[in-house]
Write a structure and sequence with these properties.
Blueprint (H helix, E strand, L loop, with lengths): L1 H14 L3 H7 L12 E9 L4 E11 L4 E12 L5 E12 L5 E11 L6 E11 L7 E11 L6 E10 L3
Antiparallel strand pairs: 1-2, 1-8, 2-3, 3-4, 4-5, 5-6, 6-7, 7-8
Length: about 160
Amino acid sequence: MTRVLAFVLSALAFALLPETAVAQRRGGIQGFIQGPIEAGLRVGRDFENHAWSAGALARIPVGQRLELRPSADAFFPKQGKTGWQANGDADVMFGPGGTVYGGGGIALVHLDGDKTRTGYNLFFGLIGAPAEARSKVFLEFRWTFVNDTSPFRLVAGFTRRIGG
């Protein structure tokens, strides 16, 4: 439980980090990043494993419509031990004003005290704000494929611009 609390506190600090600190830190990769970085928090429900989740994410634009989306979530099942998942995802923005996105990536999954397993994610989502908004809400539909399972998770959250 201490690890979960540390994770949640770290995610909250990251999401609320002053933008001047972020701007100073990313000076060396300025040419790689194509717009303001966003960070946020999310909650979700894994319907196959009957677990709630809470986590944090970052949105790093690296092209006109391409973003890197590192994220991590803690899982709180009705029965069993608390678990976690770390993701290295990328997405493509499309739709009017970039309000629809889809993508995928790698997943490291550690559930119910089992060993950490590698899998992959597929997802698509809707953003409830225009691209230039400082804060955005989103709804995401996500599948993680590990071994022979592919649980569906519905995720909702928000992001806030922290740079440029």
